[in-house]
Write a structure and sequence with these properties.
Elements lengths: L1 H11 L2 E2 H11 L7 H9 L6 E3 L2 E3 L21 H14 L3 E2 H11 L7 H16 L3 E4 L2 E4 L2
Antiparallel strand pairs: 1-3, 2-3, 4-6, 5-6
Helix pairs in contact: 4-5, 4-6
């Protein structure tokens, strides 16, 4: 199992720990993810591994892009991935409303609507873009910083 986990993390970095459990379980045909299963996965993690919060990385933290069609819940997507998606939405729709940008992202991820929980993660991602001086919000519309 250690090689499988290492490869999943290499390909899908960053990956939320709960999504890692799901990925491993689906590959080795485990139907129910129990605490015992989670413990076995955790014990099989590579020794050299970067962990930020609940996310695992293969030490490649720069240049994180939003991965679509991954089957992940919005809460299992690293904030920098969401920020990348929002930034690209603003690039293509300069002046888009905050709500419009959020709806576009959740639609791109395969969901029909923005839930309170997904909005919380998207607001955090937007705050990152604003603090990094990539996007500015004026009258509830998002614009690229020139």
């Amino acid at each position: 199992m250690p090689n499988l986990i290492k490869e999943i993390i290499r390909v899908e970095t960053p990956i939320h720990k709960e999504f890692l459990y799901k990925r491993v379980a689906s590959i080795i045909d485990v139907e129910k993810i129990t605490q015992d299963f989670k413990d076995r996965v955790t014990e099989a993690l590579p020794e050299r591994l970067l962990k930020i919060g609940d996310f695992y990385f293969n030490f490649k933290v720069s240049d994180i892009k939003l991965r679509l069609e991954s089957g992940r819940e919005v809460g299992h997507i690293f904030v920098d991935e969401l920020a990348d998606g929002l930034y690209n939405v603003v690039i293509k729709n300069n002046g888009i409303s905050e709500g419009g940008a959020f709806k576009t992202i959740v639609n791109m991820l395969g969901y029909d609507r923005v839930t309170a929980q997904s909005k919380q993660y998207l607001v955090e991602a937007l705050e990152h873009l604003i603090l990094d001086h990539k996007v500015v919000e004026t009258n509830n519309n998002l614009y690229l910083v020139k």
